[in-house]
Design goal:
heterodimer; A: mainly beta; eight-stranded mixed beta sheet; four-stranded antiparallel beta sheet; 1 helix; 12 strands; disordered N terminus; B: alpha+beta; six-stranded mixed beta sheet; five-stranded mixed beta sheet; elongated
Chain lengths: 189, 345
C-alpha cells in the first residue's frame, strides 16, 4: 500500500471539481487576497542522486513602501529537497526593508506559480532571538486529511507591520509540496 | 446577577476543560512515500566520506530513525553497495545550510552534511562529536543527521507556533538548537514526527502505541455469537477494536488496534448500572480481536469498553449493547434471588 497517494489524488480531484464553489466556514490564508483552487507547487524536475544540487526554492519578497525585497532564505523543503540552517545571519546582514509607519501593511509574496495554504509571520529584536507572533493564516491545513472541499491557497498575504523599532521579521509558508522560510531586517518608523 | 455570574463561571470552566491538554500538530510532510518498511541502503559518497569520528555518529542516526519511527516508514542501513549516499561536504547549493537532503523515492536519497569548521553566513559550524568535551554552541551531528533522515522519510519542518514543546519534534526549521539548548541532542523522533510517520505509513504494528500528537476516535464492536444460550453453558464474547472508520486520516481509518485493555461489562435486564466483569484477552494472530468466555446462568446486557491510555492519541470507545438471553431446559419455577432466575426444575 502506498499510503499517501490516494488521498492526495482525491484531494486534487476535489479541488478541481470544487474550484468554482464558494468556501463556507473555511479559514482564509490572507485577508487581502482571493483564494486559489490549487495547493500544488509547480511541476519540478525530479531530483536524483546524480543531481549535483537539488531544486532551488523560489525567492520570497516583502514589500512595504517601496520595492519588494527578496528575503534571506531559511530552512526549506521544496520539490523533494530540504535544506537546514544552523541559524540566521546577524540582523545587519539580512535584506533591509524600511517601513515608514507602524500602522503600515507588509506584503509577503512568492512567484504566482507557487501557492501556499498556511503561513506564519513573526518578529524578534535580534536574529535567532525569541520571536513574537505577528500574523498567521490557514492554520490546521493537513494534506494527509480528507477534506470535503479544497483549502484556499494563495501566493501572497498582507499583514500589519511590527511596532516601531528595529526588528528581524520572519515568514514561513507551508504547502502541499513542502515549506519555505525567509527573514528580513525591518526598520519600522 | 447570580445567574450571570454562574453563566460566566460555567463558560470559564468549560473553556478550561474544552482546551486540549496539548494542541501540537503532526509535523508537516510532503511528497510520495517509501513502500512500507522499505529497506534503503546507503554508502558514503565517493570523495565526500565523513572522517572516522563522524561515520559511527551518522550510522547511529540511521539506527535512531529505525528505532523510533514507530511506523512502517523506511529502514536505513549502511551498505558499501547501497544506492543512497551520505556525504560530508561543502558542496551545497547554499552558503547557510548545515544539512541538505534530496530524496529520490522509491530508489535512493542523498544527504549532505557540512564539514566541521565551515564558515557560514551565520558563524562557524562546530560539530559536538568532534570534541572530547563539546563546547556550548556546537551542533549534535547525530541529531542533525537524524533530522535529515526525517526529511528522507518525507517529513518537512514544523511551524514553531504549532507545537507546544520543542522536543515534540526534531524537524525544526528556524535554526536547529545547538548545545545546550533544549533538545540539542535529541536522538529520537519527537511525538509529532512519529504522528506524521504513522499517518503516512501506518503504525509499525497493530500494537504500536499511537502518538499522543494525534487524537483519533476509536470504534469497538461486541459480538456475542448468539442471542440466546442454554442455561449453564459457556459462550465466547468477541470484541473488535479499531481506529474509527470515519477518522480524518484515510490511512489510519479502520486500522485494527491490538494489545490494548478492553474490558467486558454487563447489566441485569432493566437495570442501568454496569458492572465490569473483567478484561477481555487479546487473540494472538488475530489483530484487534479480544475475547472472553463466560458460563451464563442469567440473561444480561453486555458491552465492551476501551479506556484509552494517557500515553496514546486515542479516544475511549464503548460498543453497542448486546443482550444474551439464557434459555432453560424446563420451565423454571422462578426462584428470584436478587435479579437472577435460578433453574429449579
Amino acid at each position: 500500500m502506498i499510503p499517501s497517494i490516494a488521498p492526495r489524488i482525491a484531494l486534487v480531484v476535489l479541488m478541481l471539481a470544487a474550484c468554482s464553489i464558494a468556501h463556507v466556514g473555511q479559514p482564509t490564508p490572507s485577508p487581502a487576497t482571493a483564494p486559489s483552487p490549487s495547493t500544488e507547487p509547480p511541476p519540478q524536475p525530479t531530483p536524483t542522486e546524480d543531481v549535483a544540487v537539488g531544486t532551488e526554492p523560489p525567492d520570497g519578497t516583502l514589500r512595504a513602501d517601496g520595492a519588494a525585497v527578496a528575503g534571506q532564505h531559511g530552512s526549506y523543503c521544496f520539490a523533494d529537497t530540504c535544506a537546514d540552517i544552523g541559524g540566521w545571519p546577524n540582523k545587519p546582514d539580512l535584506p533591509l526593508v524600511e517601513v515608514s509607519a507602524a500602522d503600515q501593511q507588509l506584503e509577503f509574496a512568492l512567484p504566482d506559480s507557487v501557492q501556499f495554504v498556511e503561513w506564519h509571520a513573526s518578529y524578534s529584536a535580534s536574529s535567532n532571538g525569541e520571536a513574537n507572533d505577528l500574523a498567521e493564516g490557514g492554520n490546521g491545513y493537513d494534506p494527509d486529511k480528507s477534506y470535503a472541499s479544497p483549502w484556499p491557497a494563495t501566493s501572497s498575504v498582507t499583514f500589519d507591520s511590527p511596532p516601531a523599532g528595529d526588528w528581524v521579521v520572519y515568514v514561513s509558508v507551508y504547502f502541499d509540496g513542502g515549506d519555505l522560510s525567509y527573514a528580513w531586517h525591518v526598520i519600522v518608523g | 446577577m447570580k445567574r450571570s455570574i454562574a453563566l460566566a463561571l460555567g463558560m470559564f470552566v468549560a473553556a478550561l476543560t474544552a482546551t486540549p491538554v496539548d494542541a501540537s500538530l503532526p509535523t508537516p510532510a510532503s511528497g510520495g512515500t517509501w513502500a512500507p518498511n522499505q529497506r534503503v541502503e546507503y554508502r558514503w559518497r565517493d570523495g565526500s566520506e565523513p572522517p572516522a569520528w563522524a561515520k559511527p555518529v551518522m550510522n547511529a542516526a540511521a539506527a535512531d530513525s529505525n528505532a523510533t519511527r514507530k511506523a512502517k516508514a523506511a529502514i536505513f542501513s549502511y551498505d558499501a553497495d547501497g544506492p543512497a549516499r551520505l556525504a560530508y561536504t561543502d558542496d551545497m547549493p547554499t552558503n547557510y545550510a548545515i544539512g541538505y537532503a534530496v530524496r529520490n523515492i522509491p530508489d535512493s536519497f542523498l544527504i549532505r552534511i557540512r564539514p566541521h569548521g565551515a564558515q557560514l553566513d551565520w558563524g562557524t559550524l562546530r560539530w559536538c562529536q568532534f570534541y572530547n568535551d563539546p563546547p556550548n554552541g556546537c551542533y549534535d551531528l547525530e541529531m542533525v543527521t537524524l533530522h535529515e533522515f526525517g526529511h528522507i522519510q518525507t517529513l518537512g519542518h514544523v511551524d514553531e507556533a504549532a507545537i507546544d514543546i520543542y522536543t515534540d519534534s526534531i524537524m525544526h526549521g528556524s535554526g536547529v538548537h545547538s548545545k545546550a539548548k533544549l533538545g540539542w541532542n535529541q536522538h529520537e523522533f519527537g511525538r509529532c514526527d512519529v504522528a506524521r510517520l504513522q499517518i503516512r505509513y501506518e503504525p509499525l504494528t497493530t500494537s504500536t502505541p499511537i502518538s499522543t500528537c494525534l487524537d483519533l476516535p476509536t470504534e469497538l464492536s461486541l459480538t456475542p455469537g448468539t442471542s440466546s444460550i442454554a442455561y449453564g453453558t459457556s459462550v465466547t464474547l468477541t470484541a473488535k477494536l479499531k481506529i474509527d472508520a470515519d477518522a480524518s486520516y484515510p490511512n489510519l481509518a479502520g486500522d485494527l488496534l491490538s494489545g490494548r485493555d478492553v474490558s467486558l461489562q454487563r447489566r441485569a435486564t432493566g437495570s442501568t448500572a454496569w458492572t465490569t466483569i473483567g478484561d477481555m484477552s487479546a487473540v494472538a494472530g488475530d489483530p484487534g480481536r479480544y475475547v472472553k468466555t463466560m458460563t451464563l446462568t442469567s440473561t444480561y446486557d453486555w458491552r465492551a469498553v476501551f479506556s484509552a491510555p494517557n500515553d496514546e492519541g486515542l479516544r475511549n470507545a464503548t460498543s453497542a449493547v448486546s443482550r444474551l438471553s439464557v434459555t432453560y431446559g424446563c420451565t423454571p419455577t422462578a426462584v428470584r434471588r436478587n435479579v437472577s432466575l435460578y433453574e429449579t426444575c
